[in-house]
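Lecture 7 notes: from sequence to structure.
We start with the chain below.
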Amino acid sequence: MSTTADAGAWFDEAFRAAPLMAILRGMGTARSLELARTAWDLGIDAVEIPIQSPADEEALAAVVAAGRERRRSVGAGTVVDEATVRAAARAGAAFTVSPGFDLDVVRASEAAGMPSLPGVATASEVQLAQKAGLTWLKAFPASVLGTDWFAALRGPFPGMRLVATGGMHARNAPDFLAAGAQVVAVGSALADEAELPRLAQIIGR
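Predicted structure tokens for the same chain:
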């Protein structure tokens, strides 16, 4: 069983190597494995596979196994209820990610040994998450919230660490990082050869 405090330290370490996370949604097992390896080769340690179907769960389990060989962390995304938490655990996920903030899901994930990264989009949600002891949150949908949202939240919540998710790519990632996001989550950029050098530049490679 992990705790909220453990989760904060866990994400600190997971994102230490690069300010990027990979999200591979609905790509099937073969393509998910291919792009996960692309992410790892670039230096992106954390990979998320959203699970909304049995095929997604199969892809997650396969990427988890590949990640284990390379000592990389693979998480389950779109975890919206306790049933999805159980599916993530069965597939061997190291962490969970949710589109919204549901403390029951956070606690269920922690009880299953998986740190939770819940989604927020308002100051009220950030404040509730802070009250619950969380330090890492997913800001979603980041492209709709905009860079000004991240800059504004830094004032009242200087200790909260935000992962910008939704509509992110190599061209806008630097702007969101400069505005206050600690990490940007990218997906389709990993499949675009033109984007890979930009991602490498963000990482510092």
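Points to note: The chain has one domain: 4-203. The mean pLDDT is 96.
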